[in-house]
Amino acid sequence: MMTLPCPWCGPRDREEFRWRGQAHIVRPARPELIDDEAWARYLFARDNTRGVAREVWHHIYGCGGWFSMERDTASHAIKTVYGMHDTPPTARS
Ligand SMILES: [Zn+2]
Questions:
Q1: How far apart are the first and last CA of the chain?
Q2: pTM across the whole model
Q3: Per-residue pLDDT tens digits for 11-44
Q4: What residues pack around ion ligand 1 (CB closer than 5 A)?
Q5: What is the CA radius of gyration of the chain?
Q6: Where are the alpha helices (DSSP H) in the chain?
């Protein structure tokens, strides 16, 4: 059984969560000024990381909270959990 750490509820069964994709995707400030290719990249292009990735998770069958997590996609080792709009703790120095 895999357990994920909700920042508000603590460790809970993975089945209570939904993976919502790559974290820190920034919407273009002026979409009307970019071409279709750049818009398509924003909408659809995502990293396919083997190793530590930053992801958004939703505690859908718990508190309903959204948060970001650094997780090793190969080993499933969780590095850190932080707010969706926060700077990843491992990026701070
Ligand atoms: Zn929760």
A1: 34
A2: 0.88
A3: 999 999 999 999 999 999 999 999 999 999 999 9
A4: 6, 8-9, 59, 62-63, 65
A5: 15
A6: 36-44
CA 29 to ligand 1 centroid distance, Å: 31
Residue found by looking up tokens 């009307």 in the block: 32
Query: Which 3 state secondary structure label does DSSP give 54?
Result: strand
Q: How far is the CA of 6 from the centre of ligand 1 (A)?
A: 5
In this structure, are residues 18 and 60 in contact, taking their beta carbons and an 8 Å threshold? yes
47-80: per-residue pLDDT in tens?
Answer: 999 999 999 999 999 999 999 999 999 999 999 9
User: Ligand 1 mean position to 21 CA, how many Å?
Assistant: 18
